[in-house]
Amino acid sequence: MRTQWFGDRRDVVKWALLVRLAEDNTAARIIQVACRWAKEEDKSESWDGYEKQIATFFQKRRKLESIEELQKFLSLKQEIEMLDPPVASKDDPQREYFMQVFQELKKRTYRKVVLLDPDTGLQPGKRSTERHITLENVKTTYESLGSGDFLVIYQHKPLFEKKEEDWKEARRKKLATIKEIKNEIQIGENLDIAKDVVFFYVQKAE
């Protein structure tokens, strides 16, 4: 997830779903995997004057890490953690990123809700970009979870698909090709707030 989109209407839908899943299933923690294996480009570095100063003002206040303050704001029993390991590899940064995510999640043995939060969602074809997450890395994350944990995946509506029902079901079916996922994959959404995003979620079988 890019910093520039932090706090938009999709985040409202996202975090309402995550909090309800955590509360309804007595999870101890909500973990957001930020999916920032590619360095964010800061175009404001070349600006000057008030534009540069104002951009700096917003950058200091728009930080993904500040989502952890939501726990206190809502008086939640569940903790909120953002997981975003550093990446050194230039050849396959996404794979390195998720190997670290796998190791970190294996250490967290309590009941949890884990969000994979790429810019766009699942890899649409054979080629993947920094905006998408591959099925292989979804599988890696799922395998790191304990029984009863929830995996949630952000999915934005593709720009080139016009039929609203098709893109959701097509990507849910693609996600279901991961044979390790045994339970039914659910869809979370709120069309009154954001019509262009859904969240696939599934509980790991007990």
Which percent range fits the helix content?
Answer: 25-40%
Mean pLDDT over all positions: 86
Poorly predicted spans: none
Number of helices: 6
Q: Secondary-structure element sequence? A: HEHHEHEEEHEHEE
Biggest pleated-sheet summary? 6 strands, mixed
**Which secondary-structure class do the elements indicate?**
alpha/beta
Write down how many β-strands occur, each being a DSSP E stretch of 2 or more residues: 8
Strand order within the widest beta sheet: 2-1-3-6-8-7
Provide the fold topology:
Elements: H1 9-24, E1 29-33, H2 49-61, H3 70-74, E2 79-83, H4 93-107, E3 112-116, E4 121-122, E5 132-133, H5 135-144, E6 150-156, H6 164-175, E7 186-190, E8 194-203
Parallel strand pairs: 1-2, 1-3, 3-6, 4-5
Antiparallel strand pairs: 6-8, 7-8
Tell me what the structure shows.
The protein is of the alpha/beta class. Helices cover 34% and strands 20% of the residues. It is built from 6 helices and 8 strands; from the N terminus they run αβααβαβββαβαββ. It has helices at residues 9-24, 49-61, 70-74, 93-107, 135-144, 164-175; strands spanning 29-33, 79-83, 112-116, 121-122, 132-133, 150-156, 186-190, 194-203. The strands form 2 sheets. A 6-stranded mixed beta sheet has the order 2-1-3-6-8-7, with helices on both faces. The chain has a two-stranded parallel sheet with strand order 4-5. It is globular, with a radius of gyration of 17 Å. The model has no long low-confidence stretch (mean pLDDT 86).
